[in-house]
Every structure is written in structure tokens, then in C-alpha cells.
Amino acid sequence: MSKAVGNIYIVVAPSGAGKTSLVAALLQAEPTVELSVSYTTRAARTGEEDGKHYHFIDHTAFQSMIAAGDFLEYAEVYGNFYGTSVRWLQSRLEAGRDILLEIDWQGAEQVRKVFPDAVGIFILPPSIEELERRLRGRGTDSEEVILRRLASARSEIDKVAEYDYIVVNDDFERARVDLISIFRARRLRAEVQTRRLAQALARMGVQRG
């Protein structure tokens, strides 16, 4: 890849922590960040559009993509498969774009093996009790599903120390600002800015090493 390579940001959270809402707020505030649209075998929910929220495909097509090596990462979650297109991701990185992957911890581990510099962000609920309250407040899941999600949440939270940043979603507005701040601070690092501002710095007589 060329030097004008974008960054990969991985956002992980247990179900009910508010990841989807926070990511939507981030993308609205930072339009230069591109969200990777995953492939999935689950059925589209009300209001979801193919190609915008997910690429909806059947199990046979998903297995064919696995066999062809089309996925950077993929995982089975609650009986459905999810995967990230490696070709799309590479093309966007080579174009210098910052890419956000909204995936689960299994996918995050796979991505970081290939891209160890990927920035890992964990969205943490303030407590398991609050997470359970949010899950029950949805009114869409059975008792069995809620208990399964809570068990998964405990396992995911055990991995929180493996991430570069932790955002606690106890207050949405504060968590939104914290998440946006991570992206803006990473963009202002000297190694990024000296490359982006190369011509301006040269006019100031700055010699790059």
C-alpha cells in the first residue's frame, strides 16, 4: 500500500450498550469517516436497506464468499453470519480513507491480526444492571434471548483491556463527545499531520526526515 493509507477503527460493544446510536452520531459529526457495510445472513429488519445497513445474502452465498477468501473477518453471532469485505476495505484504505468497522469481538481479533495498527474502541455500559434494563426496555427479545445476551456481554467485557480506548456510555452526549474526540485526536498526530501538511511545512522551511 502507498503511504497515503487510511486508518481502521474497530468499535466493539455488548448488545444494548448503545454502539449503533453512538456510531450514527459519530458519522454525522465526522462525514470523512466511512462505515464498512458488512455482509450478513440474517433477515433485514424494518427500515433497513440492502447495501446501506448490510449486504443481505443467504447462507449459501456467504459460504461461497468464505471459500473464495472474500472476507477479512467473519463470525457467527446468534445463529447468523457477519463478514467484512477485504477487497472493499483495501481499496478504501489505499485511497487514504478512514474506515470504521462496527463488529463483534471475534471479528475484532481477526482484523487486528492482519492490521495490528487498527484502533480498537470498546463501548462499555455503566453496569450489567443498566445493560439488562436497556435490553428489557427494548421489548423485542424473549427472556431466553435476553439472558443469552447478558451472558455474552460478561464474556465480551472481560476483553475490555485489549482495546486502545474505552468509552463508557452512561450519558449519551458525553459518550458521543468522547468517541468523536478519539477520531479527531488520532487525525492530529504529528505523523499524520506532517504528511497531510507537507507542502505548507516545506514553504515554512521545515525539512521532513
Automatic annotation (TrEMBL):
GO cellular component labels: cytosol
Chain residues that bind ATP: 13-20
One Gene Ontology term of the molecular function aspect: GMP kinase activity
EC number, as in UniProt: 2.7.4.8
Gene3D superfamilies: Guanylate Kinase phosphate binding domain, P-loop containing nucleotide triphosphate hydrolases
Stretches of the chain forming a coiled coil according to its record: none
Ranges of residues in domain Guanylate kinase-like: 6-184
Protein name stated in the entry: Guanylate kinase
Top class in the EC scheme: transferase
Pfam family name, one: Guanylate_kin
SUPFAM superfamilies: P-loop containing nucleoside triphosphate hydrolases (SSF52540)
PROSITE patterns, alphabetized: GUANYLATE_KINASE_1 (PS00856), GUANYLATE_KINASE_2 (PS50052)
Record function comment: Essential for recycling GMP and indirectly, cGMP.
Subcellular compartments: Cytoplasm
Domain of life: Bacteria
Lineage: Bacteria, Pseudomonadati, Pseudomonadota, Betaproteobacteria, Neisseriales
